[in-house]
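Z., the sequence and structure:
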Amino acid sequence: MIFKKNVWSIFYFIFIVVLFLYSALLYIRYHEIKDRHLLSYKYYTEIIAQAANSIFTQEDMLLTILGNQLLGNSVYKNIQESKKILDGALDKDSLLLGFGLADIDGNIILTSSNIKLPKKSNLLKNEITKESFKEALKSSNMVVGRAMFMKSIDAWVVPLRKAIRDVEGNVIGVLNAALNLNGENSFLTNLTLSKNKSVIIIKDSININEFYRLYDNNKNNLDYEFLYNKPISEMIINSSFQNIRQKHNLSINGLRDTNSIIVFEIKDMLDKEAIVGLTYNKKFRLWYLIKNSSDEIYNEFISVLAVYSLIFILSFILFYLLFKYISTSEKRKNDALVFQTLHDTLTLLPNRTYMYKNIDRWSLNNTNGYYVMFIDLDNFKNINDKFGHIVGDNVLVEVANRLRSFFTDNEMIVRQGGDEFIILKKCQDEKVLNKKFLELINEISKTYHIDNKEFRVGLSIGISVYPKDAQTIEELLSLADTAMYEAKKRKNSYCFFSEKMRHNNILKADIEQELRSAIEKKELWMAYQPQINADGSLHGVEALARWENEKLGFVGPDKFIGVAEETGLMRELGEFIITTSLREIKKIQSELNLHFNLSINISVVQLMEADFLEYILRLIDNEAFNKSMLTLEITESLSIEDLDEVLPILNAIKEHGIEMSLDDFGTGYSSLSILKKLPINELKIDKSFIDKILYDKSERALVQSIINIGKNFNMKTLAEGVETQEQVDVLKNYKCDIFQGYYYSKPLSYDNLLQYLKHNK
């Protein structure tokens, strides 16, 4: 034994020494190769920057010249003459696909002849063009906007914008040019690089999650929607600038203030190492970037490694064979212990430790993706509680046996613990997979015969998909667990994880947290949308809650009202909405000596409060508001949820002279018999019907039927979402009483409503 130890000591000593020398040699050779490649990236980046800067500078000069021509003698007011100027410039510049001139409000007032835009096109109303247009209004330089697809010319373009100013420096408009992004005669077409190198130009932003590509020559990804309309991963941006800080001692602002070209390494979206050359153009606020996989370094290094490794391997092959012989005998002894460590003692199925240990190897055989199934037995706890854990354990063993029989050796079956199991299964055709899940549920749900007793258990399955949903097994398990809880709501079913589940959970938590202090911070305010009678006179306004939060931005009432109902915040929120609306409208009515109706939406949660009637009457009396000018709106689907409880409250409200409106009528399940019981004065026709009234006969007939129902029940009818004169004409022809929508006015703040009413009084 001592002799064997000495032999192995010599073996390990020689092996470690040679391995150290071998590793040191490889380390030196690798860094020699790497440094040479990194140096070349500075050269390539400089070429890209010079080429792009040359093009942008040239186009900047062109826009300046065109702007002066259009301003001279106010030529821009002459559409035909202006088009000739723009068309002439377009013929001379092969990189541009079109021109357009917008006024300072963003309205397109002029384009080159080849561009046909919809009427009332406005750059400020387009999320993609809005920010760069605002930037152009403030800048003396040309502004490069986000890449976008222009339907009118069927091409992806980079918008170039430059404000044109009169002699006093006042902005007259913004001249826009469409730089050809792809195809013949496109941006940087003539630039020749090796096929694996990616050239990317990125629009700078103060927000780390708003870095967008302007140009990407990646021929392997023709999904331009993804390339240009999706921001670059915040993780990649943060990782890049952190790398720059560590390796080059430069902050992002420091990098913006210098013309330096830096080269660094980073992991891309696929978690692959890449080399990046980067520089910044301060004038146009652009990042120029050239990127390639580190594989070119590794491939060259592997060639060197192959020669050195051959020598190394041949030198130690005899030592390895001897070691393998000895280790084999030791392995047999350890296998039994390893099995116990990696398997569940009850079912003998692999456990989580086994799964984590083998997931990488298993996934190599399923490179096209796989499903992670999180399985939970429905009502298993009842078996344990009623018949004891021994019977419960026997049921689990039988479940494990059925799982083994159902799945193949290529699929990993894991016991998570308790009555939960995990299955890893390669991706299949969706129809086949859905059938497979139903068969599994049916198999596990069959009767179990244990100790002369019969048992049945259900099965809930949550499924996540690699790599669509997540990249790591921890994330996939978490997402599958989330989906499983959705499936458990239905019992004996399966559910795929969707991004909506995660987003909803996070958003709800954020909304609840911020909503608790929203009123105190004065983030909530009321908007009012006018309601117009068929004769054109003012009927009233609908009060609409608005919330602008520093963290969440604008949060729609469809998001925060539901959260308020679920978390007990509806009382406080409802009091703010009702009190603010009554006070502000009362103030306007008094100031203008104008009497009109106020509609306020009421949640069913508020209606169900025991003191709601006294509560609403107290708020009305506090503001001395005329009850006959108040309408409370209830949603159709909610108002019939518990008719026996809601109906007495609604009748009592009406007895006090307050009118009731049934909102979103037609989208729920109201029957005529139920409608007859409700003390409703007004039916509101949902916007979804109005949208289709001009081209869908069935929707038109439905709207006419709703109006007729209102007439038959002596109820007024109000059409929501009216946006065109044609819709108004159809609705008037059907004898609709009241109209509400953007055709008449958008929702207005208090001050804007006051001005609106003064103007239209």
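DSSP finds 24 helices and 27 strands in the chain. The longest helix spans residues 2-71.

Let me know what you think.
H.
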